[in-house]
Amino acid sequence: MRRRRSLLATALVSVTVAALALPAASAPALAAGCSGTNDADVAIGDNTTVESSIAISDCASAPSATATVPVKIVHTYIGDLQVSLVAPDGSAYVLHNRSGGSADNIDQTYTVDLSGETSNGTWKLRVNDNANNDTGRIDTWSLNLGGSNPANDFSVAVSPTSGSVAAGSTASTTVQTQTTAGQAQTVALTATGLPSGATASFSPSSVTTGSNSTLSISTTASISSGTYPITVRAAGTTTRTATYTLTVTGGTGPQIPDIDVAAVKAHLAQFGTIASQNGGNRRSTSAGYRASVTYVKDKLTAAGYSVTEQPCTSGCTSGAGPNVIAEWPGGNANNVYMFGAHLDGVSAGPGINDNGSGSASLLETALVLAQRNPSMLNKVRFGWWTDEEQGLNGSRFYVSQLPAAERSKIKTYHNFDMVGSTNGGYFINNITSTQSTHMKAYWDSLGLQPEENTEGRNRSDDASFTNAGIPASGYAMGASARKTAAQATKWGGTSGAAFDPCYHSSCDTTANISDTHLNRAVDGIAYTLWKSAVGTGTPGADFSVSVSPTSGSVAAGSSVTATVGTATVSGDAQSVTLSASGLPSGATASFSPASVTTGSSSTLTISTTASVAAGTYPVTITAAGSASRTATYSLTVTGGGGGSCTGTNPNDVAIPDAGAAVESNVVISGCSSTPSASSVVTVRIVHPYVGDLTVALIAPDGTSYTLHNRAGGSADNIDRTFTVNVSSETSNGTWKLRVQDLGPSDVGTLDTWGINLAP
To answer: Given 3-state DSSP classes, what are the helix, strand and coil percentages for the chain, each rounded to the nearest 5?
Structure first.
């Protein structure tokens, strides 16, 4: 609260004597602009205090240090009078204090320093008669807060403020301007925030304030349906804006979703929990990072993505976990639009803004894409990078492993690093480039006036792609750099303070997130993805699968049942075939019926023998139709006498040419010994050029052990036994053999493989 000034302590700066010309007609007491007059007579009685008011509105500038107050008071003894100007906050400025003795009347213009006041509000002229025998009146008085001449100013409005238009047609509204202070001026009219497929025109495009213009917004049939806030700008000596809300119906363009920021924050909460359960951080070499990988991968796999864990076999910190690469089916595979964020954090804290915010935003956008299942024009690929904090190592490794032909297919890489900063700004990497067009267009539509990300230049994973010749862009809200006064004026927040006060600190928790910044980032990601890669056709047929209950217990030698439910989520219903994997040795699964039409259910029966090993097993239920969707049933077996430290998977797995890694699982259960330092992995792969292949054993906790790394040149097939030191691992769980073909022209098959943890 501001401190009030003493009435008697306020000094008069100067007094200018002037003749005051009375207006021919009464001026209104309510004044728009920075000046006003009240010529209504107010009687001044003996020993009384009276006031006359002027209400100032729409004054865009602060009061001047040389504001003027012309006053005309009719009185027969001005030595009786005290005259004050009272500001809207109650502060009083003495203009006349019982001087002048027996002289008649006050007819003067006073100059007053009002620069500490607010312009708009009710100003008062207060007159005190402090003696007997003489009366008078306030005849007229004026107030000019801008000095001798008020600054020119104007307002702009639209009427109506909203409208609806069918795609392919035109909507119109009237743009109204008004002179609010000083002289009329010419202003130029423009519109921003228009959706792709809409154009705006003004008739006329420039007006003199006080005049109107017609705004016409024309749309094409291919525009996306939706509601868009259009900003109408009038630019003269200053710029004034108004908002017109345009609703488009019947458009054939892609329907861009509004991503729920609460869902993004739910992922952030999970990252926070993962950190707290694993030493307080998610550093690339930690259990917290590997648990983060599992969380992201499980979500994406269940949504129908082709997901690969890519071990960083060179250039990364020793023990760093893998990259996660996810690709959505459909779209032109020669036009890849890639969206990425680093998943690791620093050891100082849980890394929620840096960079849980970018990782969670990407994850939720990917899940919404899967749920919407639109027709795809181009290919979309997501990447969650390891070891960024140690030198951009995960993304650099990914790019280094891409053949030249694959690099050329990536048309743009978009990076998202720290997009929830609590004192954030709005920054775009390479803001003036073609690859930033959609990202900037979305933030421009919100009037955010984004800037180039100078603080983050070459400090995040976009640099790995740029250095490889792949166009890159991205969003960021700022790290340890400090917000300037100009940025605080434009964006709000605290000038002189860091964009993220918890950068690389223990306080980078879920409390260190701005919902507003996070929401504007994730919606901009979705806007960019849909504009880049989503087609305009009818969504493809898709479905979901679930199991109820999600878990069950069975005594060895008995059976347990669950209901497998399916639902059509887009397009037409389809027939899907049901299967189960991940069963322990001695257990079998059957479905009744084995195939269903989506929207129907099937009964899953899992039968066990007396020799099955006691334990808990994640059983994957797969429904295969136009795509494959999965659900997990947790099976607990009690009382079993079995158990083994060996396992084999004889099922063939196709190895695609220069494609994503493939995996084959072996579940070890009931193994009572610790894995040996000389554990044995037997592998048979049929392939005509083994120099293209990498082969790795993946432990249940996600740790990768390389068995074969592109050795052997043009030799055929891998048929050998590898000895691996896995003595630091837990025996029981799902072990995987991961194979990837990294060269062109050859395909093959993972024929069979086995593991013996206690040879």
So the answer is: 15, 40, 40
